Structure of HAD family hydrolase:
Amino acid sequence: MIRAVVVDMDDTLCLTEAVCFELENEVLTRIGREPMSRGVHMSTWGQPLLDAMTRRSPGVDLTAFAAAYQVVLREYVGDGRLDVVAPENLRALDELAAEGRSVMLLTSRTEGEVEHLLAPDHVLAGRLSAVYHAGNTRFGKPDARAFDELLAATGLRPRQCLYVGDSPGDAQAANGAGLRFIASLQSGVRRRADFDAHHVDAFIDAFPDLVGAVARLDGQSP
């Protein structure tokens, strides 16, 4: 049985690439930098933020960017512009839990970037059994060791876990760790061909399709 469904955050549970592009350009403007192009943002999407910013804005002062980013992030979250989980996605999480599966979040975001998601009044409160991020894992995707803490804490075997994400780096990490992998194409940023170098157990066009995809995989031989 697939006992744990592990979910990526950006462009998987929430569609965030477009709004993050706007957010990060707002930060660049506030620290006196030129805005980046959408193309460069999309080409580096899925990388840890500060790593990506060295390509999105070469020469940027990362310390200044990080400080301003936290301010703008709080503004966007407070205005309801970022990390809005669609009701149908919440229902999908509830259906997975009702089937007896643990639902967890694993993201490359830093602790500061997920702090609001951990608030007791957040819609995800009570729906996730664990949240793994750059603050409580030693390695980040696409390194397969990104799942080390999760596997150690749960005692589950890799084949009892499934990861759903939107990027080839997500697939690489899951493949390397021995987890099953489902690719979400809902954002439109990536196509099936982008995953040709990796094993994908299933593709979904929208997050709620995850429930059926997991059930089908659960009926297959391990």
